[in-house]
Automatic annotation (TrEMBL):
Catalytic activity of the protein: (6S)-5-formyl-5,6,7,8-tetrahydrofolate + ATP = (6R)-5,10-methenyltetrahydrofolate + ADP + phosphate
Top enzyme category: ligase
A GO BP entry: tetrahydrofolate interconversion
Binding site for substrate: M51, E56
Pfam family, one: 5-FTHF_cyc-lig
Metal-binding among keywords: yes
One annotated GO molecular function: 5-formyltetrahydrofolate cyclo-ligase activity
Enzyme Commission no: 6.3.3.2
Presence of keyword Zinc: no
The protein, known as: 5-formyltetrahydrofolate cyclo-ligase
Signal peptide positions (record): none
Length: 185
């Protein structure tokens, strides 16, 4: 009997977490600089980044270098899209849902460019997240209102031959790793 989509995603996550852990231990090389260079063309546009957890690749340097407002995701509850609270270097942070740090206070911003964390990605531009659907719901809503770019940020080692997808999965516009930038049409 064929494995269900849920089982295939769970297996892909297990393999990707192991690959990400090994890549994290090796270091991220020039990935943050590559990300900052790519984001320079987005100057002035509201940007959403994230506060890296565990073995995630860290976008903090690129977020700090962005010329424009920067926010980080706040989880409001299961099944809801993310909101983004404005972040600046030195902002007072507190633990949010799932242990991710969020600014203790600040304005809400609506990003036009999102640096998206992920567990795995593939050459088609699809990502495998943690399974809550937060970024897919958020991107769907933002893209319904305006052009919104989603750039995955990951280690090369997180690439899979094919990420299992479903109709609600949102495709990335680009993926940035320690070896460069890949754009998706």
């Amino acid at each position: 009997m064929a494995a269900s989509l849920t089982e295939r995603k769970a297996e892909a996550r297990r393999a990707a977490f192991a690959a990400r852990k090994a890549a994290f231990e090796a270091g991220q090389g020039q990935a943050a600089e590559i990300l900052a260079d790519w984001l320079a063309a987005q100057a002035g546009r509201p940007l959403a980044g994230y506060m890296a957890m565990r073995t995630e690749i860290d976008p903090l340097a690129a977020m700090a270098a962005h010329q424009g407002p920067v926010g980080v995701p706040v989880i409001l509850g299961p099944g809801q899209p993310l909101k983004f609270r404005e972040w600046t270097p030195g902002a007072v942070m507190e633990a949010g849902s799932f242990g991710a740090f969020i600014p203790a206070e600040g304005a809400w911003i609506e990003p036009e460019v999102l640096i998206v964390p992920l567990v795995a990605f593939d050459a088609r531009g699809y990502r495998l997240g943690y399974g809550g659907g937060f970024y897919d719901r958020t991107l769907e809503g933002l893209r319904a209102r305006r052009l919104t770019l989603a750039v995955g940020f990951a280690f090369d080692a997180q690439e899979l031959p094919e990420v299992p997808i479903e109709p609600t999965d949102q495709r990335l516009d680009a993926i940035i790793t320690e070896s460069g930038v890949r754009l998706f049409d």
